[in-house]
Amino acid sequence: MKSMVIAVLMLSMLLILLSCRYESQPTQNTLDIETQSLSKKGGKPNPELIIFEEGDLEGNQTVFGCCPNRGPFPEYTMTLSSAFEEISGTYDGHIFTNFHRSPGDYPVKFWWGEVPNDYFLEIRGGEANNDKRNKILTVTFVDVPCEVWINDKLTEPVDVSFTLTRARIHW
């Protein structure tokens, strides 16, 4: 019986010590984007150059922390061609791109504005060429439908063509 009491006491003390150690840790990561994107090896930033060219979307910018499924969603400046009619132009917004293993399933999302005037573009598809050695991903989109959401209402899709390049920048 004595050994059981001692074991429960030891386990309780261990749990108290562990909870004290993590008490000051936030449940949500509130660090800025550059800090979040630090690699575990050496604490260097993990930037990427994301380029949209040769078509209906244009942009060329270095971003930090792009693009895990739950963010961060880095700021990005995108130019939309005249294929987008009323909303063609250059916008400061946020970007999400991710590489899925299945062919033709490469998502690109871009959004800008504030409620009630918000805009959201979503494109899925593309043919990927992944140069793993140099850490450069090139995805070519040819006449792929782009969903355009304006103020949470889906408008007529726009067929777009462009080339997306994501290149890891080595420091």
Structural overview:
It is a single chain. With 171 residues, the chain is mainly β. The protein has one domain. It has 2 helices and 10 strands. An 8-stranded antiparallel β-barrel has the order 1-2-3-4-5-6-8-10. The longest helix has 20 residues, at 2-21. It starts with a helix and ends with a strand. 19% of the residues are buried.
Structural class: mainly beta
Average per-residue pLDDT, rounded, comes to 81
Largest sheet: 8 strands, antiparallel, barrel
Number of strands: 10
**Radius of gyration over all CA atoms, rounded:** 22 Å
Question: How many domain modules?
Answer: 1
% residues in beta strands: over 45%
Sketch the topology as an H/E string, one letter per element.
Answer: HHEEEEEEEEEE
Terminal residue distance? 61 Å
Q: Poorly predicted ranges (pLDDT <50, ≥5 residues)?
A: 20-41
Query: How many helical stretches?
Result: 2
Bulk shape? elongated
Oligomer: single chain
Q: Indicate the percent of residues in helices.
A: 10-25%
Q: Strand order across the biggest sheet?
A: 1-2-3-4-5-6-8-10
